Amino acid sequence: MSDTSSLVDRVTGHRRMRRNRKADWTRRMVQETRVTVDDLIWPLFLVPGSGIVEPIAAMPGVNRLSVDMAVEAAREAADLGIPALATFPNVPMALRDETGSHSLAADNLINQATRAIKAAVPNIGIITDVALDPFTSHGHDGILRDGEIVNDETVAQIARAAVLQADAGADIIAPSDMMDGRIGVIRQALDESGHQGVGIMAYATKFASAFYGPYREAIGTGGLLKGDKKTYYIDPANGTEALRDAALDVEEGADMMMVKPGLPYLDICWRMKQEFGLPVFAYQVSGEYSMIKAAGERGLIDEPRVMLETLLAFKRAGCDGVLTYFALDVARALAGR
Ligand code: PBG
């Protein structure tokens, strides 16, 4: 035995990594990254009506909320110290059309929710997604004409929708459509309408991913989408192209960046942080959430531990925070509730 250990000492030169791992207190001392409530952004799904808490089959544990219930959810999130919410509307079919014109209604669901939450819970940030997909009859993020998503017209409409979101009280606009030039045009539209203080979180690198499936069910575009989004989202194979795309968003005036999906794209999180130094947020998207939930429900993994481990991984990869459907669960766990 003593021979073995001296052999180990000889090969390691007496450097034994396990010394720092030997007890809970040493492990806490050397812990490099931590997840705190300040890292969490909670995405919420909205539906018209009142008193509605509607489970989403594809996302166990996540509900669509009517505005009044969203206000209650916002209150709980704020009480737990969650810094911000991100809102996504499920718009009735009757209000959807080819061009997503209801995105330009000042009192549409997303703007109603912003007004109500801001009035009742002023100490939580509101990040509004601006894209046409909740409003189009075909589920695309832009205006579809002759089989093509037209860029410039879409950008013009999105910029108008962003101004209406800011008018309603949104703190940060998050364009998720991946049209070229959208950040610069939105920045200009916000500034010209007196919203210099409203920030932009660019969905800077958004990939044409299969992980968005459950989200599309959540906002009711699942069965609608014709074709795919490969002509505007980034090919999952392309990391360097993603960085070039993000560089444009930085030049055009993004205040913060997002990487989406999250866990399969940690290399992009790291590269973005190193390259630009702007705040970087990962979006742990619906498919990532539902995989963990489904495996947890079947007893195949320990869900709470896996959930926290994924969040640590985002921090280790340089992220400043994470948009995650687990936000409330994590905040409660951190608060010991
Ligand atoms: C589209 C949008 C998507 C998500 C948020 N906004 C993707 C899509 O449907 O293509 C996905 C979020 C998730 O999967 O959790 N504007």
Distance between the termini: 48 Å
Provide the CATH top-level class: Alpha Beta
Number of strands: 12
Adjacency order of strands in the biggest sheet: 1-4-5-8-9-10-11-12
Poorly predicted segments: none
Which outline best applies? globular
- Please bin the fraction of helical residues: 40-55%
Integer count of domains = 1
Give the CATH H-level superfamily. Answer: Aldolase class I
Approximate strand percentage: 15-25%
Give me the strand/helix succession: HHEEEHEHEEEHEHEHHEHEHHEH
Largest sheet: 8 strands, parallel, barrel
**What's the alpha carbon Rg, rounded to whole Å?**
22 Å
List bound small molecules. ligand PBG
> Which structural class fits the helix and strand makeup?
alpha/beta
CATH topology: TIM Barrel
- Given the structure, what is the number of helices? 12
Average pLDDT level: 96
**Any idea what the CATH architecture is?**
Alpha-Beta Barrel
Question: What characteristics describe this protein?
Answer:
single chain; alpha/beta; TIM Barrel; two-stranded antiparallel ribbon; 12 strands; 41% helix
Written overview of the protein:
With 337 residues, the chain is an alpha/beta fold. It has a single domain (33-334), classed as TIM Barrel (Alpha-Beta Barrel). The relative contact order is 0.13. The model has no long low-confidence stretch (mean pLDDT 96). The protein has twelve helices and twelve strands. An eight-stranded parallel barrel has the order 1-4-5-8-9-10-11-12, surrounded by nine helices. Strands 6-7 form a two-stranded antiparallel ribbon. The radius of gyration is 22 Å and the shape is globular. The chain has helices spanning 2-12, 24-30, 67-80, 109-120, 151-168, 182-192, 213-218, 239-252, 266-276, 286-297, 303-316, 327-334; strands spanning 40-46, 53-55, 63-65, 84-89, 125-130, 143-145, 148-150, 172-175, 199-206, 256-260, 280-284, 321-324. The site of ligand PBG has 12 residues, from helix 7.
